[in-house]
Amino acid sequence: SAYTPYQAEASQGTLQVLYEYQTMMANLMAMDVSNASLYDGASGLAEASLMAVRAQRKPAHRILVAGTLHPLYRETIETITGMQGIEYVDLPWCTDAGRIVPESLARVDDQAFDALIIPQPNFFGTLEDVDALTDWAHAHGALAIGVVNPTAMALLKPPGRWGGTGADIVCGEGQPLGVPLSSGGPYFGFLCCRQDLVRQMPGRLVGRTVDLDGKEGFTLTLQAREQHIRRSKAKSNICTNQGLLVTAATIYMALLGAEGLKRVAAASHENARKLVDALTAVDGVRQAFTAPFFHEAVVQLDRPVDGVLAQLADCGIVGGLDLAPWFPELENTLLVCATETKTDNDIDLYTAALREALATAEVA
Predict the structure, then answer these.
(1) Are the beta carbons of 151 and 261 closer than 8 angstroms?
(2) Is the CB of residue 192 less than 8 Å from the CB of residue 69?
(3) CA torsion sign, 89 to 172 to 148 to 341?
(4) What does the pLDDT read at residue 4?
(5) Which neighbouring-strand residues pair with 236?
(6) How many C-beta neighbours within 10 Å does residue 289 have?
(7) % of the chain residues with pLDDT over 70
């Protein structure tokens, strides 16, 4: 189930799985500590934001948010923490590159923030200059919160090595780690941090020890949630360990290993490059941003997206995400993605269907 039994030490199998999960996630993120999962990536970011405010000795109750963060994550953190007096300030992004330009931070140099939220890759699939952003946060007394795709971290620089001293807190959605989607879910969130912030971390930590006979065993070493301590002292009353999904992710990571995860990430990037190259060879399609990307990218069409998506749907193809509802400045743009599961034939079929849809869809 989602919960560790109250007589936890009797559940050695559950505890060992969580311990192995924590170890692999901490290694993947190059961080000191991982908890035993959260409900999903978006609520995990809310927990990370609350951690950052608690950790500051004189909290400003203000957090700077990259404008390239997933808009639903942005809505979620407002919903969860909105009544706790935290102000979220959006940092504008460059519409040419599709990411934050570090020079834009100069406009908030004189303001106090508890943390800076840095997505990697960002909502548009492009890669942020995480080193410059992390160093700016630390130079201005703020913590750096990374929101990352765990598969991408097998290839990219992990958050623990961002900038001069690394990110302070890292969270994200664990679904890419071997959790199949079905009817809108399921998901699980991960949360890692530096050792000195561990007392601010919600959820459970599992440790390895030995019993009186010298046999190895596993135990809950930290459980800062409402069932186990006074509710008013809990770090969180909502953090939920997604035990079944964490078990699936642990098996997935154990089977693939570090090299296997790198191959999955490399294959995803290669397929995304093939997809973008194929789509931009079609008349009326161009790549929207200049910054490097991982396995998602934005393409600009020369006509309204909704008609094109409708025609693709008639062909049994989910064509991508229309970005205009969240970013009005990105009219007629489409967010597309390719993972390691896609084949050259899949890409060819999509490209042919898009070409046909553009030939018949109404021009803007």
Answers:
(1) yes
(2) no
(3) negative
(4) 56
(5) 225
(6) 22
(7) 92
